[in-house]
Design a protein that fits this description.
The chain is an alpha/beta fold and 392 residues long. The protein has 15 helices and 14 strands.
Length: 392
């Protein structure tokens, strides 16, 4: 299936499935525990219906808005995802270029396989760096300084990973970083010759922003859960977030809040934007779907704080639902990783074009000419479909 034949999230996912070795596909596709939150994130969008307005002049529909204090092409950003080189040799650079072409923000992960500086050199674009508070606080300070010196527009602190979630698929399929051929995984890799050939040509899977200070992977492959647990600091509190906001001194995003209490704490600590998120259902299985939380957070905190729905977004119409319930924008992770695996940088660009086209069509059918016109234009439809009926 060529890129031109890919029309939906399901298409990109299917193509990625045919190209990626099983451990890598399931690393993207899977979630924590029984994967209830993973499925519920998607199902949440079936619980709200959109309210159109007829007989409105929609001859000029404009999807552009403002996120992270910058003008963007549509209310969407690309979430931080670690180890992008695993899925395609275009790695983070291809994703950053596709985001810049679409005029939307790209967030580089601490766990990226491309450096902060290399992504900045891609050219003009809205960029954010995602950070954890690691055990090595000197490295944390270094990240803040490097992002500032490289001209990043925002800093994003992830707060929902004191430890890694229980990800059964990683264990079942033998996911390690970097990948390794064993008797258990050999057939999976051999059956994906396209991926294997690119691995042979470019097998550098090092975590580019960390390797000079942390050699956790230097001695060989290790389980991802073991690596995460070895590096993340369980003692982090909102005082650390407050310190980081002050240290950064610019647009500060907190990612991984899903309760009103935590949203208030993040704002008190200095957040200018909140990514309402349960880490794509990859951390606490049972955490609420971000879409189900955003309306109550908006009502409680008012219009000053920027809210981004992170989780379950699969289509352009989903963005409209999130904005109708009070969000300023949405972010995606799995969709662009599947698009990258399916077609590299061109695959990501195609996905973003399709999402923009559907978002603009949804706006026109709702009688909205600007994203701001969508506010308040969704109502619940009851309990909706069961999560299992909506996944994948």
């Amino acid at each position: 299936m060529k890129n031109a034949q890919l029309w939906s999230y399901g298409d990109f996912r299917s193509k990625a499935h045919s190209r990626l070795p099983r451990p890598l596909f399931h690393y993207i596709d899977g979630g924590a525990g029984a994967e209830w939150s993973l499925a519920n994130n998607v199902a949440a969008f079936s619980r709200y219906q959109l309210l159109p307005r007829a007989m409105v002049d929609v001859s000029a529909v404009e999807a552009g808005t403002t996120l992270l204090g910058r003008a963007v092409g549509m209310p969407l950003l690309l979430s931080p995802t670690g180890m992008t080189r695993l899925f395609h040799h275009h790695r983070e650079l291809g994703v950053a270029r596709a985001a810049a072409l679409a005029g939307i923000p790209y967030c580089l992960s601490t766990m990226a396989t491309t450096s902060i500086e290399a992504v900045a050199e891609v050219g003009p674009g809205v960029r954010m760096f995602q950070i954890y508070v690691l055990r090595d606080r000197g490295l944390t300070r270094e990240f803040v300084q490097r992002a500032r010196e490289s001209g990043y527009d925002a800093l994003c602190l992830t707060v929902d990973t004191p430890v890694a979630g229980v990800r059964e698929r990683d264990r079942r399929y033998g996911m390690t970083m970097p990948p390794r051929l064993t008797a258990r995984t050999l057939l999976d890799f051999v059956l994906r010759p396209h991926w294997l050939a690119n691995w042979i040509r470019d097998g550098d899977f090092r975590l580019a922003n960390i390797t000079h200070r942390v050699d956790a992977l230097g001695a060989g492959s290790m389980g991802l859960i073991d690596y995460v647990n070895s590096q993340f600091d369980r003692s982090v509190t909102w005082k650390d977030a407050e310190w980081m906001a002050t240290e950064w001194g610019g647009h500060f995003v907190v990612k991984g809040v899903s309760t009103l209490e935590d949203c208030r704490s993040a704002v008190d600590a200095g957040a200018t934007s909140l990514m309402v998120s349960n880490h794509g259902g990859r951390q606490l299985d049972g955490a609420p779907a971000p879409l189900d939380v955003v309306a109550s957070v908006r009502s409680a905190l008012g219009g000053a704080i920027e809210l981004i729905v992170d989780g379950g977004v699969r289509r352009g119409g989903d963005i409209a639902r999130a904005l109708a319930l009070g969000a300023n924008g949405c972010s995606i992770g799995r969709p662009y990783l599947f698009a990258l695996a399916a077609g590299g940088e061109a695959g990501v660009s195609r996905l973003l074009r399709l999402m923009r086209e559907e978002f603009e069509t949804t706006m026109a059918l709702m009688g909205a000419t600007r994203p701001q016109d969508l506010g308040g234009r969704a109502i619940p439809v009851g309990h909706g479909a069961e999560p299992s009926a909506c996944w994948p």
